[in-house]
Amino acid sequence: MNIHNEILKEIRKAGKEVGLTFKREVGILKNGSKDIYYVFTKRRTDEVVLEHSDLFIAYENVLAGYISSWDGEKFVGVSEEVRG
User: Fold this and answer.
1) Count: domains in the chain
2) Residue 23 located in a structural domain
3) Which domain holds residue 58?
């Protein structure tokens, strides 16, 4: 069992249940090096609704209930501090 893959499955499942897609993105920093980060996007429009600098921060937000609080337009009923 690969822990990384299991975490990705759980995060993607939590997002899918509320209409979000979880994706890995690659950006370029000013010094030319790659910056890997993760985003939740609206499934229908691909609009980014939440960015994470780290896979495990995204996982913490799933475990804390932040992702499941998505109502289609915003995250509700959960402290903004959870986002990290």
Assistant:
1) 1
2) yes
3) 3-74
Q: Which residues contact 36 (CB under 8 A, 6 or more apart)?
A: 24, 25, 26
Q: What is the pTM of this model?
A: 0.82
For 56, other C-beta atoms within 10 Å of its C-beta total 13
Average pLDDT, the chain: 89
Q: State mean pLDDT over 70-80.
A: 81
Q: Is 77 left (phi over 0), alpha (psi -120 to 50) or beta?
A: left
Task: Please write the tens of the pLDDT for every residue from 35-50.
Answer: 889 999 999 999 999 9
Domain membership of residue 32 (yes or no) is yes
- Tell me if 18 is assigned to some domain: yes
Q: How many residues does the chain have?
A: 84
Q: Kindly list the distances between the CA atom of residue 60 and the CA atoms of 3, 17, 45, 67, 84, in Å, as whole numbers in the listed order.
A: 15, 17, 25, 10, 9
